[in-house]
């Protein structure tokens, strides 16, 4: 499958640059600030070869929902997988992103990672009332099913605080705080396909 729409590529590049800047600021201990980042548009072509990948999560989540001890898959395990950049809390757009990632895992056996950033970080808030999608599930239930199927959900730490106003006790159980090394490993693992869903 090839996603070639120029608009989507432009949104993808801009979103990746913003996310990389935010993660750099976070890793430097800053809550905000300008960061100049040069990035190339990631490939949007899914590899034709089928690579056996472990679709399992090593996240250990406590009953309180604290995922501070959770660990994502290694770059080797992520090889040939899917990275979904989700920067919106729009119901239909987010449902499409989560549903597509879940189906990719089920149909191909490849690992998948969803990165919640910008407005997408609001999906992690357990205190926000959730509307039911036409599929019969809320977006948080869909994220739960995605994680139950072996998917990894990373949450941008800067967006978590600055956009969603969250602390870890208010996070949806199972999510992993997206440290820069976690996001980069998932985004730039060998033969990974990157898709971006945004807009409001």
Explain what this protein looks like in three dimensions:
By secondary structure, this protein is of the alpha/beta class. The chain has one domain (6-197): DsrEFH-like (Hypothetical Protein Ychn, Chain: A, 3-Layer(aba) Sandwich). The protein is 34% helix and 10% strand. The chain contains six helices and five strands. Strands 4-3-2-1-5 form a five-stranded parallel beta sheet, sandwiched between helices.
Largest sheet, spatial ordering of strands: 4-3-2-1-5
User: What's the CATH architecture?
Assistant: 3-Layer(aba) Sandwich
CATH topology: Hypothetical Protein Ychn, Chain: A
User: Which CATH class?
Assistant: Alpha Beta
Q: What is the percent of helical residues?
A: 25-40%
Shape: globular
Catalogue the unreliable spans.
1-68
- Main sheet: strands, sense, barrel: 5 strands, parallel
Key attributes of the depicted protein:
200 residues, alpha/beta, Hypothetical Protein Ychn, Chain: A, 6 helices, 5 strands, 34% helix, 10% strand, globular, disordered N terminus
What's the gist of this structure?
By secondary structure, the chain is α/β, with parallel strands linked by helices. The chain is built from six helices and five strands.
Secondary-structure blueprint of this entry?
Elements (H helix, E strand, L loop, with lengths): L5 H22 L47 H4 L3 E5 L4 H18 L3 E5 L22 H10 L3 E4 L1 H6 L13 E2 L2 H8 L5 E5 L3
Parallel strand pairs: 1-2, 1-5, 2-3, 3-4
Helix pairs in contact: 3-4
């Amino acid at each position: 499958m090839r996603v070639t729409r120029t608009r989507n590529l432009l949104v993808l590049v801009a979103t990746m640059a913003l996310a990389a800047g935010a993660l750099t600021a976070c890793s430097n201990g800053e809550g905000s600030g300008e960061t100049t980042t040069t990035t190339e548009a990631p490939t949007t072509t899914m590899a034709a070869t089928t690579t056996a990948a472990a679709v399992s999560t090593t996240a250990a989540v406590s009953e309180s929902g604290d995922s501070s001890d959770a660990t994502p898959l290694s770059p080797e395990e992520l090889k040939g997988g899917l990275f979904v950049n989700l920067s919106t809390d729009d119901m239909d757009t987010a449902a499409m992103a989560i549903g597509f990632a879940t189906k990719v895992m089920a149909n191909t056996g490849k690992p998948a990672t969803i990165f919640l950033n910008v407005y997408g970080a609001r999906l992690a808030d357990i205190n926000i009332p959730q509307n039911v999608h036409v599929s019969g599930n809320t977006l948080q239930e869909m994220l739960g099913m995605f994680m139950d199927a072996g998917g990894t959900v990373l949450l941008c730490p800067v967006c978590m605080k600055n956009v969603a106003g969250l602390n870890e006790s208010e996070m949806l159980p199972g999510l992993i705080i997206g440290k820069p090394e976690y996001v980069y490993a998932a985004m730039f693992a060998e033969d990974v396909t990157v898709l971006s869903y945004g807009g409001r």
